[in-house]
Design a protein that fits this description.
Layout (H helix, E strand, L loop, with lengths): L2 H22 L4 H17 L1 H4 L6 H33 L4 H4 L3 E6 L5 H13 L3 E7 L2 E6 L2 H5 L3 H10 L6
Antiparallel strand pairs: 1-3, 2-3
Length: 168
């Protein structure tokens, strides 16, 4: 391991341990030691997923802040999609409005982490679910024309923005 990789792994170990403390709420020796062991194992096992490029801690902190803003935006989109699905469900002509379909598209997102975030976001949004993901190829089931039209759309652009990718 390079010196930079060791630093990044140590940083992620610290973050995992802080998360462990917050979630466990136990401060006895047994739980703290168990938390340290679990944090080290998780950080080492996931170092290539978390830090796919070794841009440095400052770049990762910026991406973490961007991810937080993205998650707030995603929660709003999930709420809007819930309202849309609710309107569809209680519509008088529900069978005329529903137009389930499979939508295939290729994503410009380059890393597995980016595509994972996009796939998870699509699946979390009511009315859409990722059926298949192979490399950059997505196959998504959408419940209506409106949901199908929005794929991949702004969601992909926002995921790309987390990692400073520009769409063509």
């Amino acid at each position: 391991m390079t010196r930079k990789t060791v630093k990044l792994t140590g940083f992620s170990t610290l973050l995992f341990f802080l998360l462990w403390i917050v979630l466990s709420g136990r401060f006895d020796t047994f739980h703290l030691v168990l938390g340290i062991i679990a944090s080290v194992i998780t950080a080492v096992a996931c170092r290539n997923l978390i830090f796919q490029s070794t841009d440095g801690i400052s770049a990762r902190l910026v991406q973490s802040v961007r991810l937080c803003f993205y998650l707030v935006w995603l929660i709003v989109q999930i709420f809007k999609a819930n309202i849309h699905v609710l309107k569809l469900a209680f519509s008088k002509n529900v069978y005329e409005i529903l137009a389930p379909r499979l939508v295939a598209f290729d994503s410009i997102l380059e890393t597995e982490l980016e595509r994972f975030i996009l796939a998870s976001s699509i699946t979390l949004t009511p009315g859409t679910v990722v059926v298949e993901l192979k490399d950059e190829h997505f196959l998504v089931h959408a419940i209506s024309d409106e949901m199908a039209r929005d794929l991949p759309g702004e969601m992909e652009q926002r995921v790309a923005a987390i990692f400073r990718k520009r769409l063509v």
